[in-house]
Amino acid sequence: MPHFEIHASDVSRAKSFYSGLLGWRFSPMPGGEDVDYHLIEGTDFVEGGSLTGGLMRRMDAQPASGSPVRGGTMTFEVENCDERYAWALANGGAEALPPTDFPGVGRCAYVEDGEGNIVGMISAPKEGS
């Protein structure tokens, strides 16, 4: 079962960011209280399903904003890449890659999440591209 984790210095701020950006919900994981561990819930996450995710308190210093990629990059499908990118910038995110068309792939953008992580968004390609 694929699983990913997002590390955050401010778990509450990160929960708000990802709830707004991708519509996720979070529930505390029993036994994970020491690291403020939360399981991610949403349309792409099903208990016992093919994808699970967690959000937890970062155990060391947060990487400096604007520094090179410092971990895995997660990219999620969204309906409108430009709209989600604008939302992210207005809600604590920072530009990593503005919305860009990749022929045959789709429209993609990356933002910093305010916690030292980079998250990507991709929309389906427009017809004829």
Describe this structure in words.
The structure is a single chain. This protein folds into two domains: 3-57, Roll (2,3-Dihydroxybiphenyl 1,2-Dioxygenase, domain 1); 74-123, 2,3-Dihydroxybiphenyl 1,2-Dioxygenase, domain 1. Helices cover 17% and strands 36% of the residues. It has two helices and eight strands. Pfam families: Ble-like_N. Residues 1-124 form the VOC domain. GO terms for molecular function: lyase activity. Keywords: Lyase.
What's the tally of helices?
Answer: 2
CATH architecture of the largest domain: Roll
Strand order of the largest sheet: 1-4-3-2
Number of structural units classed as domains: 2
Radius of gyration: 15 Å
Number of strands: 8
By helix and strand content, what is the structural category? alpha/beta
CATH topology of the largest domain: 2,3-Dihydroxybiphenyl 1,2-Dioxygenase, domain 1
Measure the end-to-end span: 34 Å
Which assembly state applies to the chains in this document?
single chain
Flag low-confidence runs: none
- The helix fraction, in percent, is 10-25%
- Main β-sheet, in a few words? 4 strands, mixed
Name the average pLDDT. 87
CA-based shape: globular
CATH homologous superfamily label of the largest domain: 2,3-Dihydroxybiphenyl 1,2-Dioxygenase, domain 1
CATH class of the largest domain: Alpha Beta
In terms of DSSP E residues, the strand content is 35-45%
Provide the succession of SSEs.
EHEEEEHEEE
